[in-house]
Amino acid sequence: MSKKKQIVNAPDAAPPGGPYSQAVIAGDFVHLAGATPHRTDRSLVDGSFDEQARATFDNLAAVAKAAGSSLADAVQARVYLRDMDDFPAMNTVFAEYFGDEPPVRTTVQADLPGFLIEVDAVLYKPAG
Q1: Could you tell me the pTM of the whole model?
Q2: pLDDT in tens, 44-57
């Protein structure tokens, strides 16, 4: 019999902007919702692309940690950019957060509401 999904709340990350969970553990996988460059009080990190990207990845990492995992366990990531001209800068920051064994990744341009980047991920965390 399979276990039920487990909802994860991360007080050290920006709270969800709507009626969804920050992460859900299902079996051996942790699904992280899209992280954005917001602070825990929901205010926007209103700075350069690099500042917004780092805030976004910091939020994603905080949610992964709250789920008992880390970005090192990522098997898939999706990056949404308002402006594809930010792709090289995103690549640099992405490499810092995901290290030598990065996950598969898709990057798409998106009409983000007031911020420059959003990132979600799937982590592999075997039960044990």
Answers
A1: 0.95
A2: 999 999 999 999 99
